[in-house]
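Supplementary Text 2. Reproducibility record for the structural model of the 102-residue chain.

All settings were left at their defaults, and a single model was retained for analysis rather than an ensemble. We include the record here because the model underlies the residue-level annotations in Supplementary Table 4.
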Amino acid sequence: MVELLIGKKGTGKTKVLIDNVNTAAASAEGNVVFISCNTTQNMYDISSKVRMADTSEFDITSWDEFLGFICGIISGNFDITNIFVDGTLKIVKNITEGFESF
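Retained model, structure tokens:
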């Protein structure tokens, strides 16, 4: 299932996402992953059970590359049950072309 949290800046999307991440971490039978372009910003709000991936360490410039990034995370750990992404458009440098196929 894919769920999008869409809204203007400052409307509390990240707070809702972090609440969802922590809820999933408390009840998931597998691993929960949080992907963001700046994981240090939310590091202390997210449960230590959650695996965090910071995309700023990689040069992701397209939706295909981002999909490859996610596939690489999954291939490294088959016990992942939930993946949460914060700042999706920031990760791909605000490129909207290719989002639908993603």
